[in-house]
Write a structure and sequence with these properties.
about 280 residues; alpha+beta; Double-stranded beta-helix; four-stranded antiparallel beta sheet; disordered C terminus
Length: about 280
Amino acid sequence: MPDASAGSERFFTDHYVNLRAPHASDDIAAQLRETGLVTLDGLTTRRAVLASASRFMAITPHPHGAPDGLTLIHDTGRHAYRAGFAGFGNGELHAHTERSGSPNPPRLILLVCLQPASAGGETLLADGLDVYARLVGQNRAVAIAFSQPRTAYFGTGTGHASQVFTIQADGRISIRLRQDDLARWSPIVRPYLPHLRSAVTASQHRLTLQAGQGYLLDNHRWLHARTRFAGDRRLLRALGEPCVALPNGFTPRRAASVLPCRAKPSDGPSTPFTSNPPTR
């Protein structure tokens, strides 16, 4: 049986950049452009997390954030069963991109562990490049369907109609997803949801963050999730726009590079969405 902890350590090491090394900022920028993911350590205080976030991004506010722009992610004991608030409970958190219900989701996420859970609470990360390639390899029609404009509605009544995969004008692809009660799906894609979930699960890497460890990722490329946990697990999150030029999403592998439909970065042409958006 594979050693899950060893796999987590390898994944962390494979994407690690030492913040204290010379030219660390250049190395981080290059890695974000290449893979969209950087793992970090040594961030043991709120001040250190804020300083690092400000180094990489222009921090954007979040409705649940503090005045400094950081959001404490922990089990509040009162939010777990509210739609859209699963991150503030101790249950499983399905793979998603951050702020999927807004017209322009932030490009970067910095998430740092201040205190790990006593049990569980592993992070699950999936590269949109791998998810897309799996879908194309298994059934090209599925990838095409999830690229059709306005086939999903994410958020409340003030949410956003979009699609899981957005084909940019330069051929790159960005991903947007949520899988909770605030996701509504067009009949065009609803039959294919099990295929999407299977591809996401098969693409996930498990990451067990220790105190001071974290990751910086491209929110238009990577999906993140969490397993159920016990104990006082505490993390700090920052969202924002990169301080360096960052191409949008990922370049599909050659075998998956051609689709018959390309959408504008936001909505694209209208495709009938027959489910009414949620109003709660």
